[in-house]
C-alpha cells in the first residue's frame, strides 16, 4: 500500500515539473529610453535683462538762444528724425534784446565821433594824450559791447534755426507762439547712432556681470536680428522704481540704426563661454552623491557620476569618467538603475 502511494506522489511531481518546463521563461524587465550622442558644444552662461533704449548723454544737445523772444514757427515734433541743416524752428527776437543791440550800435557811432573830435583837438594841442587814450578806450569798449550783442543775435529780427547735425528730436520744450526767456531750452537733439540700452537685471546676478562683457540686444516686439554690443557700466545701487540693478549697454555702429530711443529691448549678457562636453539638461539627474547620467552600452544602462559646469536654458557642461563613444539617455532616465536593460526609441 505504501509503495502505491509513493508511486502516485512521484507521478504527480513529474507532471508538475513537466508543466513548468513547458512554460516560456519570463521576459527580462527593460525600459524604453531616448538617447543622443555625446558631443562637444560651445556653451555659454548668460544673464538676461529687459529695458529701454535711450540716447547717450554725451550725444544730447539742448538748443537754446542767448536772448529772449518768441518762437513763431515749429518745424519738428518729439521723435522727429532730422538731417543736418534742416529747419527746426523760427525765432523772433524780443523788443528788449533788439533795443540793446540798437543802443550798442549807437554807442559805437558816438564813440567814433568822440575819438575823431578828440584826435582833432589833440592835433591842435587842445587835448591831452590821456584824453585821446580815453577816447580810444571808449570806442574799444563800445565795439566789444556791440560784438557781444551780435553774437547773441540781438541784431537779427527773425532767425531760422537749423539742425547742427543729423539725429533725432528727443524733446520739444516749447509750443509755437511761446515767448521764452534768454537761454531757456527750446528742444533737445541726439546724434544719430549714438544710443545706449539700460537693462535691469536681478540683484543676485549683478556680481557676475562686468564692463566689457558681450551682449546681444533685440527688440522685445518683432523678429529683428540681434544686435551685438558690450556692457559699458554696471550700476552699484538698486533702481527704486524697478527693484533691479541697471546695466548700461553701449549701442553704436551701423547696427544701432535699427533701434530708436524709447524702444523696449531684451538683452542677454554672456558671463562665461567655453567649448566642452555638454548634454541636454534632461540627461542630468541628482542624488545624495551628486550629479549623474546614464550611458547605454550593448542594451544596458550604465550610471556615470559627473561634475557639471556651465549651464544654460538648454545644455549642461559635464565632465568625469565618460565614454565619449557611448550615447547618453536624455528621456526615460528617471526609471533606470545601473545595469538595467533598455530599449532605445521604439525598440
Structure description:
The chain has four domains: 30-42 and 275-344, conserved putative lor/sdh protein from methanococcus maripaludis s2 fold, CATH 2.40.420.20; 47-56 and 193-273, Efflux pump adaptor protein, beta barrel domain (Elongation Factor Tu (Ef-tu), domain 3, Beta Barrel), CATH 2.40.30; 62-94 and 155-191, OB fold (Dihydrolipoamide Acetyltransferase, E2P) (Beta Barrel); 95-151, Helix Hairpins (Orthogonal Bundle), CATH 1.10.287.470. It is 21% helix and 43% strand. The protein has three helices and 21 strands. A hairpin with a 2-residue loop joins strand 16 and strand 17. Helix 2 (95-123) packs antiparallel against helix 3 (129-151). The longest helix has 29 residues, at 95-123. Mean pLDDT is 88; it is low at 15-27.
CATH topology title of the largest domain: Elongation Factor Tu (Ef-tu), domain 3
**Proportion of beta-strand residues:** 35-45%
CATH class of the largest domain: Mainly Beta
Helical residue percent band = 10-25%
Q: Reading side by side through the largest sheet, how are the strands ordered?
A: 2-11-14-13-12-15
User: Helical element count?
Assistant: 3
What structural category do the secondary elements indicate?
alpha+beta
What is the fourth-level CATH superfamily of the largest domain?
A: Efflux pump adaptor protein, beta barrel domain
Query: What is the strand tally?
Result: 21
| Spatial gap, N to C terminus | 59 Å
CATH architecture of the largest domain: Beta Barrel
What is the C-alpha radius of gyration, as a whole number of Å?
A: 43 Å
Q: Extract low-pLDDT stretches.
A: 15-27
Q: Overall mean pLDDT score?
A: 88
Shape: rod-shaped
Amino acid at each position: 500500500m505504501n509503495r502505491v502511494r509513493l508511486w502516485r506522489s512521484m507521478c504527480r511531481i513529474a507532471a508538475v515539473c513537466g508543466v513548468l518546463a513547458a512554460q516560456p521563461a519570463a521576459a527580462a524587465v527593460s525600459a524604453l529610453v531616448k538617447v543622443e550622442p555625446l558631443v562637444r558644444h560651445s556653451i555659454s552662461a548668460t544673464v538676461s535683462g529687459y529695458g529701454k533704449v535711450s540716447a547717450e548723454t554725451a550725444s544730447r544737445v539742448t538748443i537754446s538762444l542767448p536772448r529772449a523772444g518768441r518762437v513763431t514757427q515749429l518745424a519738428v515734433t518729439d521723435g522727429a528724425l532730422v538731417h543736418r541743416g534742416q529747419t527746426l524752428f523760427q525765432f523772433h527776437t524780443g523788443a528788449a534784446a533788439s533795443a540793446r543791440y540798437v543802443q550798442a550800435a549807437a554807442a559805437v557811432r558816438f564813440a567814433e565821433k568822440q575819438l575823431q573830435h578828440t584826435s582833432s583837438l589833440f592835433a591842435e594841442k587842445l587835448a591831452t594824450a590821456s584824453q585821446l587814450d580815453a577816447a580810444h578806450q571808449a570806442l574799444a569798449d563800445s565795439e566789444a559791447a556791440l560784438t557781444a550783442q551780435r553774437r547773441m543775435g540781438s541784431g537779427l529780427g527773425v532767425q531760422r534755426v537749423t539742425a547742427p547735425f543729423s539725429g533725432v528730436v528727443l524733446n520739444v520744450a516749447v509750443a509755437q507762439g511761446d515767448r521764452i526767456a534768454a537761454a531757456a531750452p527750446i528742444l533737445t537733439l541726439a546724434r544719430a547712432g549714438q544710443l545706449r540700452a539700460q537693462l535691469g537685471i536681478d540683484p543676485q546676478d549683478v556680481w557676475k556681470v562686468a564692463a566689457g562683457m558681450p551682449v546681444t540686444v533685440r527688440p522685445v516686439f518683432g523678429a529683428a536680428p540681434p544686435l551685438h554690443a558690450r556692457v559699458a557700466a554696471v550700476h552699484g545701487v538698486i533702481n527704486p522704481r524697478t527693484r533691479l540693478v541697471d546695466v548700461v549697454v553701449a549701442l553704436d555702429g551701423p547696427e544701432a540704426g535699427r533701434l530708436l530711443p524709447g524702444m523696449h529691448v531684451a538683452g542677454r549678457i554672456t558671463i562665461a563661454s567655453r567649448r566642452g562636453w555638454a548634454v541636454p539638461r534632461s540627461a542630468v539627474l541628482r542624488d545624495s552623491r551628486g550629479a549623474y547620467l546614464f550611458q547605454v552600452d550593448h542594451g544596458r544602462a550604465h550610471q556615470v557620476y559627473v561634475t557639471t559646469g556651465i549651464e544654460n536654458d538648454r545644455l549642461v557642461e559635464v565632465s568625469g569618467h565618460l565614454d565619449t563613444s557611448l550615447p547618453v539617455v536624455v528621456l526615460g532616465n528617471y526609471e533606470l538603475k545601473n545595469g538595467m536593460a533598455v530599449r532605445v526609441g521604439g525598440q
